[in-house]
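Objective 1b of the project was to move from sequence-level analysis to a structural picture of ligand recognition. The entry below was assembled by the postdoctoral researcher (A.K.) and checked by the PI before modelling. It contains the amino acid sequence of the target and the SMILES of the bound compound, adenosine-5'-triphosphate.
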Amino acid sequence: MRREAHLGDRIFYLLLNGVALSVLMLLGAIAWQLIHLSLPAIHKFGFGFFSSTNWDPVQEVFGAGPVIFGTLVSSGLALLIAAPISVGVALFLNELAPRRLAEAVGFLVEMLAAIPSVVYGLWGIFVLAPFLRITVEPWLSGHFGWLPLFRGAPYGVGMLAAALILAMMITPTIAAICKEVFRAVPQSQREAARALGATKWETMRLAVLESSHSGILGAVILGLARALGETMAVTMVIGNRAEIAASLFAPGQTMASVIANEYAEASGDLHLSALAFVGLALFAVSFAINSVARILVWRLNRNRGRDF
Amino acid sequence: MSGTRDIVITQTILDAKNINAWFGSVHAIRDISLPVEKNTVTAMIGPSGCGKSTFLRCLNRLHEEVAGARVEGQVLLSGEDIYGPGTDPVAIRRKIGMVFQKPNPFPSMSIFNNVAVGLRLAGMGNKALLAETVEKSLKQAALWNEVKDKLKAPGTSLSGGQQQRLCVARALAVNPPVLLMDEPTSALDPISTAKIEELLIELKKEVTVVIVTHNMQQAARISDRTAFFLLGELIEYDDTSRLFTNPRDKRTEDYITGRFG
Ligand SMILES: Nc1ncnc2c1ncn2[C@@H]1O[C@H](COP(=O)(O)OP(=O)(O)OP(=O)(O)O)[C@@H](O)[C@H]1O
Ligand SMILES: [Mg+2]
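Corresponding predicted holo structure:
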């Protein structure tokens, strides 16, 4: 009997190991394939690929500058918008809202995360872009037109639309993780603050926010990783022009959207290879960012586990 | 309050009158009145679940923070009802400090900041004064010598007993006239416990202490008055020496002789 149970354990153990190993192998295979596909572009452009600002499929000249720029700007702006909102939502749900309301709103927020990105894209095209074109962008250029950021024709579709859509898409992700991080703060911390004469807001700051810095950072970085890789919705609203423009109203292109947009009709082997090279870079960056974020969240929870 | 003796109280600092407290529909504290004498240590004993913590938390308006919890009655702090209309619980809690069962320093803060946090909440910005008060409080909590060279280290880097004294210092820093303690030594080793006990005897020159303890020897060692609780009621409240040697109520006697609880 015992021996059999033991054998069962061993088989199960080996099976799990096999699954874990195959995940690693899959990751390695993807990386290898990407490198292989990128080789022509790597030979042709070298590291200059990342600094060159010219992406011109017609001339067969490829530089990733514009798409890196577009990725950084759209994701960065999205984070700037989404991070404070997400932290606020998580604080509200965890610290202020009555249980029922918190559950209902929390459920809705999770639903937001489950909406397919193409639906966000459609909404962006039919609702957000016209709203930006008719209302927001004229207002911005009217009041802040002295900033290069808000100059130029209001297309609606463009960098600003992409950033806003991204912000909407990553808010549920960041808020959900922040909520978990805040929930992990022991009640005794809140009581300590309350007993010292802290108001509700001061209690949140002292007991919850201050001890959650690295967790919030981790959540934001995971949001960033999601924004960097987000493809469909961005492709639908960013305007798809690989140019570096100062204005947020101008169309742009991100690393993910350029692949989605051009892969199907890539004109030649070098074009394909350049797209693969962009993909490889995106893969590496996402991988690194995800790792950093997970480590941050993991370290926080481990430290909290030990009380004294 | 069936068996309360007419103990002589010369100067009441905290006077609980007809306190009733509920958790939802659970009536946890039943009409308890308990005057606390200034500059004494008052101990509250009783079996688990009899309402000691709940009653203690009524004394600084912490009970009402629990969802669904409710309090009725009066608690006079130097004559003023902390449950009076328009009274701000935040202001009350600055005058009535609290130390919890499990040490709970803020993990994100240094030792110094843990002690200074109450002062900063009260709006003290003067650095020199802040440093002076932190030092004084750490000395009062008998922790200064152990931490004076590492005030910048995280509060959670200390041992459990040191953390608890840090929490005492944190509570004392705002100079509250009353300090409430809920089984402050139950998570500590005997040496740390002895340190806290010594500290309390020293402290009562300046602060009035109300302490919940499960440990009857501790109550006998450190307190001047002892209150015995049972099932949400105050059974007996007397000078500690009398309550332990000559209890009036049969239930008190059963409890202190270890016949139940
Ligand atoms: N959050 C709560 N919700 C509902 N009932 C509670 C809650 N906390 C305590 N009670 C009930 O109130 C009563 C008093 O609890 P309290 O914690 O004051 O007891 P205690 O004397 O401090 O016990 P112990 O010595 O174990 O700490 C108990 O019957 C308990 O079940
Ligand atoms: Mg208790």
